[in-house]
């Protein structure tokens, strides 16, 4: 069976959550934009056409939505770390990277973003 490396990219997932430590941030949900890259070995999935051999990006996206929208975060680092953990713990994942942007966080910038990544040891 060939070694096929796949990368899923969840692009510009727009959600609202409580993020920040200022009083207005604690009281009002803010927009966040999530981008996730999930690497996995797709050899078995590509040969078998079996969903259990692949990363189910729909299920993963639903987990991310639920987690982000139903929790509160003081720091962008915490939010990004928790979303990264959800991605990295999916079936067959070898590496993951998540960038979360907070639009309108700074007056003269389009957004502020943070990127975290992880890789499983071989």
UniProtKB/TrEMBL annotation:
InterPro entries: Dihydroneopterin_aldolase, FolB_dom, GTP-CH-I_C/QueF. SUPFAM superfamilies: Tetrahydrobiopterin biosynthesis enzymes-like (SSF55620). Pfam families: FolB. Pathway: Cofactor biosynthesis; tetrahydrofolate biosynthesis; 2-amino-4-hydroxy-6-hydroxymethyl-7,8-dihydropteridine diphosphate from 7,8-dihydroneopterin triphosphate: step 3/4. Residues 8-118 form the Dihydroneopterin aldolase/epimerase domain. One of its GO terms (molecular function) is dihydroneopterin triphosphate 2'-epimerase activity. It catalyses: 7,8-dihydroneopterin 3'-triphosphate = 7,8-dihydromonapterin 3'-triphosphate; 7,8-dihydroneopterin = 6-hydroxymethyl-7,8-dihydropterin + glycolaldehyde. Keywords: Folate biosynthesis, Isomerase, Lyase. Belongs to the DHNA family. Catalyzes the conversion of 7,8-dihydroneopterin to 6-hydroxymethyl-7,8-dihydropterin. This is 7,8-dihydroneopterin aldolase.
